[in-house]
């Protein structure tokens, strides 16, 4: 393997903004353009190596997706009116659009290349904030996701001979597509922390979902949080479950998904997490990579996030700064040049600082728990369902 580089990669090709379901769809690609604009406004593009990779080809896409599904995406991409709804295409969530295959394969290509570069030692960390499209299934689109770039990146790592990959997903929605892709594979530990499936799409991610019987048992861990969970509970839950699992599994690569839709301003969900807590979990994932992964091999992806001006660009700019070992001061005033760009693109006023003004604090699980508390009940349910399968105390 090549010598380890301390530099981080930022995967970026302007054409990822062509992943566009239309003006009435909540996943507005302006969130990607504004994030990259804020990255540049802070000079982070000089602290990381900004690179573009080619789109994923069919042989790569087939690592997760069925060829008949790839063919259906390509057909809908050429003629959106002919989209086959049997593949989840042409629905309200996943409307077909011209160039859909190309844009989706390009995003997937960035995540796969990020994983390849980190495994090869070309960089210690790599970020693709256009990625994290975790709902796509082997044979169908779902939840705004056409190709599952996160699962493809992991599958490529396995193809390259990696024996242990940990995937940690903190999007407000369950990382169902990634879990499904590796349900029977003990080489991949999937951990998803999300709003409770009783309240939110996709309706899965119960604590009892722990992997296939046999070798896959214990390969999936799900932490389903009550609606209304705020910073203290969200951080308490993360730290009560994730670090212990990573320390035990000792992955060779850590892949994380940082959907920003846990935020209290997000219109599509019901958690009440601040930008400051999101940043704290990004930093915690970075620390876990340095502490438990040889060479600190870390691939960080974006995901959901539908407060496209106020939340997503700030959250993912923090992620890029953390990965680049050039963290952005939360108290810093957002550069006026970026706020001008926001107004020019959206006619909205951008946020003024890189913080929501919240103090980040949580109570450690080691200090005890309250069996009557709903958040603690959620953590207990996860630990009791999953931890013994991994030889850990609940």
From TrEMBL:
Belongs to the histone deacetylase family. Residues 25-320 form the Histone deacetylase domain. It comes from the Bacteria. This is Acetoin utilization protein AcuC. It holds the Pfam family Hist_deacetyl. The keyword Nucleotide-binding does not apply. Pathway: Ketone degradation; acetoin degradation. It comes from Streptomyces xanthochromogenes. InterPro entries: AcuC, HDACs, His_deacetylse_dom, His_deacetylse_dom_sf, Ureohydrolase_dom_sf. Keywords: Acetoin catabolism. The keyword Cell membrane does not apply.
